[in-house]
């Protein structure tokens, strides 16, 4: 599958479906082509605007999934209808395919008890799953090199890192410099959901693209973070769409 992308505030976002994304990732895994998958949302973009290291990592990511209703809206402002692809759903579908095709996976992140429960539940859910490496996310920076080389020794095909943004993407980027034949994805709080420690939004909220709203109901402390992120992102997205449309109108007149 050839990548088709559109820029959202300067960052390439892949235009695809959930099944298309799974097929693309599995193709890379089968060919032992290393990749970094980013599940992008407005908070990530706003954070990257203030962090040059994080911004560079996003710009060089190999596959950028439109996770977050704000990204879907930003693309719609440009006249592009794109489905929202939750990273948690994408990760599960790739795990399913890896289990069926006997590819190994690694789990890094969360607290030890959450990590162990996640592994247990995944083993119950996916027959034939091969978890070749596990490590909780509570380690000091001076342990990173040791962990990365232990991960390399385990030879995983698909690595899930649940350490939150931007830490997980920065850690993945370091791993890629040493392990160039595995697919990596940052999955935020997915281990907490899979372990049953955090309730995921009911299907209605997911269908409506309002999973973020349910999480805010459950965790009111998120409200300040959303208030500081979403309005600014939407204003920037509207301005960007107007600017982009103006450029195309000028080109049309010149042609």
Question: What's the number of structural domains?
Answer: 1
Q: What is the average per-residue confidence, as pLDDT, rounded to a whole number?
A: 89
- CATH homologous superfamily placement: AF0625-like
Structural class comes to: alpha/beta
Task: Please bin the fraction of helical residues.
Answer: 40-55%
Low-pLDDT windows of residues = none
**Shape verdict:** globular
Question: What does this molecule look like?
Answer:
With 255 residues, the chain is α/β, with parallel strands linked by helices. The chain has helices at residues 18-30, 42-48, 52-59, 69-76, 87-100, 112-125, 144-154, 167-176, 190-194, 203-207, 211-218, 222-254; strands at residues 5-8, 11-14, 35-40, 63-66, 104-109, 130-135, 158-162, 183-186. It has a 6-stranded parallel sheet, with helices on both faces. The protein has a two-stranded antiparallel ribbon with strand order 1-2. Helix 1 packs across helix 5 (87-100) and helix 2 packs across helix 12. It is globular and about 50 Å long.
């Amino acid at each position: 599958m050839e990548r088709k992308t559109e820029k959202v505030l300067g960052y390439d976002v892949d235009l695809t479906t959930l099944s298309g994304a799974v097929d693309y990732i599995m193709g890379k895994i089968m060919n032992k082509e290393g990749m970094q998958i980013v599940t992008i949302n407005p908070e990530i973009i706003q954070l990257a605007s203030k962090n040059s290291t994080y911004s560079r990592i996003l710009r060089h990511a190999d596959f950028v999934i439109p996770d977050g209703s704000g990204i879907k809206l930003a693309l719609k402002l440009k006249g592009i209808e794109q489905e929202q692809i939750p990273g948690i759903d994408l990760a599960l579908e790739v795990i399913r395919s890896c289990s069926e095709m006997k590819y190994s996976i690694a789990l890094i992140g969360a607290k030890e008890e959450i990590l162990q429960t996640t592994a247990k539940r995944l083993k119950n859910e996916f027959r034939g799953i091969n978890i070749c490496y596990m490590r909780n996310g509570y380690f000091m920076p001076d342990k990173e090199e040791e962990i990365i080389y232990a991960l390399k020794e385990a030879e995983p095909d698909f690595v899930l890192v649940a350490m939150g943004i931007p830490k997980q993407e920065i850690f993945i980027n370091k791993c890629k410099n040493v392990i160039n034949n595995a697919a990596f994805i940052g999955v935020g709080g997915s281990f907490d959901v899979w372990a049953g420690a955090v309730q995921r939004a009911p299907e209605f909220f997911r269908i409506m693209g309002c999973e973020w709203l349910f999480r805010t109901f459950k965790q009111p402390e998120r409200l300040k973070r959303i208030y500081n992120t979403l309005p600014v992102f939407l204003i920037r997205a509207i301005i960007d769409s107007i600017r982009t449309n103006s450029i195309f109108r000028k080109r049309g007149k010149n042609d």
